[in-house]
Amino acid sequence: MLKRLISAVAMLVATSSMADTSVSIQVLGIAQDAGYPQLNCYQPHCIRAWENKDLRRGTSSIAIIDGPAKTKLLFDATPDIRDQLYRLNLAAPDTEYVLRGVFLTHAHMGHYTGLMHFGREASGSENVPVYAMPRMYDFLSTNGPWDQLVHLENIELIRLANGKPVVFSDQLRVTPFRVPHRDEYSETVGYRIDGPRKSAVFIPDIDKWDRWETDIRDIVRSVDYALLDATFFADTEMPGRDMSQIPHPFVTETMDLFAELSSEEKSRVIFIHMNHSNPLLVDGSPEQTEVEKRGFRFAREGMRLEL
Fold first, then answer.
1. Do 127 and 100 form a contact (C-beta atoms < 8 A)?
2. Which residue among 54, 87, 215, 216 has the highest number of C-beta atoms inside a 10 angstrom radius?
3. Starting at the edge strand that comes first in sequence, how are the strands of the sheet with 71-75 ordered?
4. For residue range 32-60, what is the model confidence (pLDDT) as tens digits?
5. What is the rounded radius of gyration, in angstroms, for the C-alpha atoms of the chain?
6. Fold of 2-300
């Protein structure tokens, strides 16, 4: 117990020191919209996490900590936002760092419903900047209960434009780009993040890669980190379901598509946004081993990526 406590304190000190002097990404959650384990799932892969809280994982989200500017950014407002902002606060305390914005990818439940915690029944926040694409902006502005957040000035909506960067400083800018996905209520975007020395893309949700006019291999080659949709590992993952109706790129498909990349380019790929059925959530699984043997990585909560 004492060793674990000392280790935790040392990690917190190291994290705080890094936050003071660098710009970095912190991974706050790695699971698909409904988290892990998932509601009403009592199969072995979920039971293990119901019975051991240490195995539970939050919904996919990342943050940027800008140490020199004493600011931080959140990407997606998930159902697990309370815990995620607490952990972000440990690394970049609210007493020292200003939350400069929440960037939303789209209007599916795991990516924006955490906004409710900024409302009057919760934190009663004041004018938290929330960046959204035009349809997402209109959706939040005209549908309850989200429009109440706007009317009460708990959040301040800021309209994004496809391909137009949001510049925070000479060492940090964020650029949204449209990707194909189920767009019932809003468009869907990924984000390119450019830091002082390195860059990243965050694409937690997308349809099959061949439905996008952009070659994802070119994107990977253009950045230092590519956090990519890993909702499902393989086609056999959901027995009894027509997987063509849930057209995410399988991790196996993505690895095959990237087979021609160099070893260094493959190491830039970090899989994220894993469904509760995805064995990448199980430490030591054969699937984790396969990903690493093929030269790729998978996200872990708490992972830090220096920009």
1. no
2. 216
3. 155-159, 128-132, 98-103, 71-75, 61-66, 23-29, 304-306
4. 999 999 999 999 999 999 999 999 999 99
5. 19
6. Metallo-beta-lactamase; Chain A (3.60.15)
